[in-house]
Amino acid sequence: MRGRAEAAAITAGALLAALALFALFLRANGLDPLAVYAVLWLGGFGTPFSLQATLTQAAPLMLTALCTAIPARAGMLVIGGEGALVAGGVFAVLAGVAAAGLPAALGTFAICAAGAAAGAAWIAMAGALKHFRGVNETISTLLLNYIAVALLNHLVSGPMRDPAVSLKATSWSIPQASMVGTLPDIGVHWGLAFGVIACLIAFALLKYTVFGFSVGVLGGNPRAAQLVGLPIGRLTLLACGLGGAAAGLAGAVEIVAVHGAASSSLAVGFGYSGILVAFLARQNPLAIVFFAVLVGGISASGGLMQRRFDMPDAATQVLQGIIFLCVLASNALYGRIKLFRERGVAG
Amino acid sequence: MNPGELGWWGVAIAVLGGAIRISTPYLFVSLAETLTEKSGRVNLGLEGTLLMGAMSGYGVSYLTGSPWLGVAAAAGAGAAFGLLHAALCNLPRVNDVAVGIALFIFGTGLAFFLGKPFVQPQAPRLPVFALGGFIDMPAIRAALEVSPLFFAGIAVAFAMRWAFVNTRWGLIVRAVGDNAEAARTAGYPVNLTRTMATATGGLFAGVAGAFLSLSYPGTWAEGLSSGQGLMAVTLVIFARWNPLNCFWVSLFFGGASALGPALQTVGVTTYYYLIGAAPYALTLALLIASSSRRHRLIGAPGELSINR
Q: What residues 2-41 of chain B have any CB closer than 8 A to a CB of chain A?
């Protein structure tokens, strides 16, 4: 309980510090910080319309954040969400085209399953390389991001290209009937539900199952995990596979709910923002839901801020970067605040 | 340069020209990462540093009219980013790889934010040495227009290699990077050494950015860098943490980057994107082949978090 309060307080403090630093940055650039923050609130959360845009952004972020958070529990730093999302999107299109004859609901299921499976395989590959060859997972997933994007560009401009679309290299489209609509009442596509459910499942899996406990042991102390005979290889591959499946599902959702076909619009940085969300949430899947909405809101407000203040749309990225840096720096504070120390434990 | 008229010879010339021209930023970022990693830390944020260098170099060159002042500004901006990385990593329980990712996001955003006014105007560019001035063929002449920064990079590579082997400073950096506890016991300041190494590395990465904006391609735009900074970590593995190898690896990656566009000009367009990704696939293959569960990569500093 104390630990959770400590994490909440320190993260909130880091966010406030980031907002203060960004305010200084705005002031230095001749902008009024309070006015900018008012517009940020308006553009991200203030109106039903902006909240819709925010939640639409947050949906893929929840899923790509899991791609970093689940392997992180096993002690790995995976940054391959972007590649897994792209792989998921490509295979979602393939499945959608192959399943054209099936009933629409079954087709949608096949598309999402194919996307998740492709993402799972993509990141599990990095897990296997780590386990069997000792290849560092951060570097292999970074390289796999580049390879995935190159494969995407190759496929949509050649083998999978739909010649009817001339404006931008785009793949074949999935059947219109397989596309999913929006959630009732809130007007956000179904990806949001997928994201929230995936986070809930991941939370339960990590907290209440033997698998989750074993992964925690492996992440906390690999030597101890080895000594008590945990199946390290299987745990590593599973943790990577589950994370990859989430990011792959994000790719499938982009296909099935937004684009309907694969193109370079798949690789727009949801994978990289997902890393930020995972670190903000301290790799906790429940907290990911909250922080994905926060980061999604910052991204969604970029357009309005650009129009109101004529400032570059990179402003939201500057803010995200400052938040990331402050949250990382705040790690140094854990155990330093007297209020949160266990009584009787020397700190 | 138009290799189309020269056919396959044109491709070879373009790859050669690319090896010389496109390699310079690769060379500087790989040297930057080598120095940082030799001291025991990873800086995954060099892409942000590189873009900050490119932006500030271009901006200062435009405002002052002197491209060399631009290079100096880029170096300063890069060193500042290196210092920021080091200062954060000096705090307890702060992960250097994560800080790098954060600086990548921050630096990229900041460069595009502050650099917006410089997208339109044309800044004075760095001069080139026309080594092929006596040759008649324009394609070869263009390929042999070499930036002074290319030679500066080679000089830095040799100097760094020499310093690692022969100087007290080099020895301290290597000791801190191989075994921080032992270095601390021997009385060497671990955090200070790493701070200096990371800041100097940031300086080199800033210069790499200045090359992009002031020499080749020689402009400031959002798509300026094609991930050279992100590749630094893998270039260093390829180079086995040896500054001299950084040079050869950079030539190779520069040539490889030029291959796709050059093949396109002679009509081979089918595999354009795959050829572009070949260096990454090759690096991954090399990693798979040379890694082992039992020992770390040959030449890798012992304190490196990404190597355990």
A: none
